[in-house]
Design brief:
Strand content: under 5%
Largest sheet: 2 strands, antiparallel
Number of strands: 6
Helix content: 55-70%
Strand order of the largest sheet: 1-2
Radius of gyration: 25 Å
């Protein structure tokens, strides 16, 4: 669909309404009525009341002028939803009017709670480092590969920095694809790693593929910089932040698990006691059921490897020895997602300026060869929504990695903890595909 006005003519609408199509916005009608005979609000209330007996549900068609992200606050969209539930669940009795509900306040409190949760993970880890058992992890941090002096030094730093920004945006849309697969709905779209009985979440499969491929590229780039440039400056295994006795690595893992589990227990407690979830739009850290936890541990190894590698890059290459502390935090945050942020700004900036996204389709799927073989191009819509969340969590966890490395002198604690956080951030609100 080019825009929302075409929604009621789509095959998805016809499938979801039992055959109805081209229905005017705001129309109530019976499921399976292909002519979509309009019901008044009073008739819809009566139909909803008899639905429990007749098992013939009602439907309502809505479309409105707005952008996707604005629906989170849009009083018109919220009003449609509330009125539908008033009709179908409350016999037509109105609840609180949409204009009287504090939607912005709820969103702001959710964001505050989410940020507080993220800060708490690191705060608890730093507190537990004071315990004698865990304090043995702490050791002086080795110097970074990067020390910048003069214009030549600045150029020598910027070139590798920019190179590390390029792989993610160049590969993102192609690797993520259109990661949608809902078996009961028989819909499945382009994703390079289709869900199966083991890896059973299409969006997470796409992210796992992205982490694996981009992580491989990062590893090659880092090794080239390390051996071609770093070794000349005296870099060694200790410089990477990986040199740590095995017992201390296990302590780092245990500390990361305790810090993560301790704060996640608070998330569960808040949900159980007050129904509170710490979320803002697509930013979520939510309680997970047993199925999600099983899936969490299946994907975890790839996230651990990726974020340990990111910790090495942040702290032994991106960090500048003779730079202010705040600048190193900023450099780590930008390198974590700067290339993706530029792509995102171009893509959605073009959308708001022209009404059409700058990158509408997944690369290659618009080629004549692809269209001849598959018959349709695949949009970047869901990949763009997933990117919105990554641009939030990646710079935050980059700063976390830097804070924990500065405290412990190694990348292990930061790598473990940030892997847990990013994985739960991306998986906790997603549905299992199979």
């Amino acid at each position: 669909m080019e825009d929302s006005s075409q929604y009621t003519t789509s095959f998805k609408f016809a499938y979801g309404t039992g055959g109805a199509t081209n229905v005017p916005s705001g129309t109530y009608f019976m499921y399976g009525d292909t002519s979509a005979t309009p019901l008044t609000r009073e008739e819809a209330v009566t139909a909803a009341a008899s639905a429990a007996v007749t098992m013939t549900p009602i439907r309502a068609a809505y479309s409105f002028d707005g952008t996707h992200s604005d629906t989170y606050y849009d009083e018109t969209a919220i009003g449609y939803g509330i009125d539908f539930f008033d009709i179908t669940l409350r016999g037509g009795v109105a609840t609180i009017a949409p204009t009287e509900q504090v939607w912005h306040g709820r969103a702001a409190c959710g964001l505050i709670g989410l940020i507080a949760t993220l800060v708490a993970f690191v705060a608890l880890a730093l507190t537990l480092l004071r315990v004698p058992f865990f304090s043995t992890i702490v050791r002086p941090a080795a110097p970074s590969i990067s020390t910048v002096h003069g214009a030549k030094g600045v150029i020598g730093y910027i070139i590798p920095y920019i190179i590390f920004l390029l792989p993610a945006p160049l590969l993102y849309y192609w690797l993520i694809g259109y990661p949608y697969y809902m078996q009961p709905q028989w819909f499945k779209f382009l994703t390079k790693f289709m869900p199966n009985s083991f890896f059973n979440m299409a969006p997470m499969n796409s992210l796992m593929l992205f982490n694996g491929v981009v992580g491989g590229v990062f590893l090659v780039l880092y090794l080239l910089v390390f051996f071609l440039i770093g070794r000349k400056k005296g870099a060694n295994l200790e410089t990477t932040g990986l040199k740590l006795p095995f017992a201390q690595i296990l302590k780092s893992l245990l500390l990361a698990v305790l810090s993560f589990a301790g704060i996640y227990a608070v998330v569960y407690a808040c949900s159980a006691l007050s129904g509170t979830n710490f979320s803002f739009f697509k930013f979520n850290i939510m309680p997970m059921d047993s199925t999600h936890w099983v899936t969490f541990f299946k994907y975890l190894p790839v996230w651990l490897l990726f974020f340990l590698l990111c910790g090495v890059i942040y702290n032994s290459l991106t960090r500048i020895n003779n730079a202010p502390v705040w600048l190193n935090y900023l450099l780590c945050a930008v390198v974590s997602c700067g290339g993706l942020a530029v792509m995102f700004a171009y893509d959605y900036g073009t959308l708001f300026a022209t009404g059409v996204r700058g990158i509408q389709y997944i690369p290659v799927t618009t080629s004549p060869e692809w269209l001849a073989a598959v018959g349709m191009s695949f949009p970047t819509a869901l990949a763009g929504i997933m990117l919105f969340g990554l641009l939030f969590i990646l710079p935050i966890t980059a700063v976390m990695s830097r804070v924990l490395h500065k405290k412990t002198g190694s990348v292990w604690l930061g790598g473990f903890l940030t892997a847990f956080i990013v994985l739960v951030f991306t998986i906790s609100h997603m549905v299992v595909s199979i």
